[in-house]
Amino acid sequence: MIQLYTIGFTKKSAETFFTMLKDSGVTRLVDTRINNVSQLSGFAKGTDLKYFSGELVNIFYEHNIDFAPAKELLSLYRTKKLTWPEYEIEYLNLLDTRKIAQKINIEKLHKNCLLCSEHKPEKCHRRLLAEYLQQVRNDIQITHLI
Fold first, then answer.
1. Going by C-beta distance under 8 Å and a sequence separation of 6 or more, which residues neighbour residue 93?
2. What is the pLDDT of residues 94-109, one digit of tens each?
3. Over the Cα atoms of the chain, what is R_g?
4. pTM, whole model, 2 decimals?
5. 43-53: b or e for each residue (b if 16 or more CB lie within 10 Å)?
6. Cα distance between residue 32 and residue 62, in whole Å
7. DSSP string for residues in 72-85
8. Angle 61-67-69 (CA atoms, 0-180°, nearest 5)?
9. N or C terminus of the chain with fewer C-beta within 10 Å?
10. Spatial separation of the C-alpha atoms in residues 69 and 88, rounded to whole Å
11. How many CA atoms lie within 13 A of 123 on its CB side?
């Protein structure tokens, strides 16, 4: 069984965020944001996350923009030119176009945690990505850290 986690950093203190990761047994934090230098959270900028993850909880940090939505797609959703169901379809199509299912070594996802900004996974691409990967390999168990 491959254990795959997801987490969003908004509405979490650094203490809560890193404690959740540590307590879950995560070994790799995979940043799925297109822009990992956002000011949304002081501890969630890519260079800071890499440092804190390694130093505080001994978790490897990786930024994988192949998992991120395209800027245009994100913009269309944020400006309400796409509904959430439309966004889901477009994002999943993007993963297919990028051949994610063929590129990824799913075995290496064990104890990885997909990161983005959204607090809850319901309307977040990290959930869509996790479920997409689960369709490729049905032995993936997804846990959303909230």
1. none
2. 999 999 999 999 999 9
3. 14
4. 0.95
5. bbbbebbbebb
6. 9
7. HHHHHHHTTSS-HH
8. 125
9. N
10. 10
11. 9
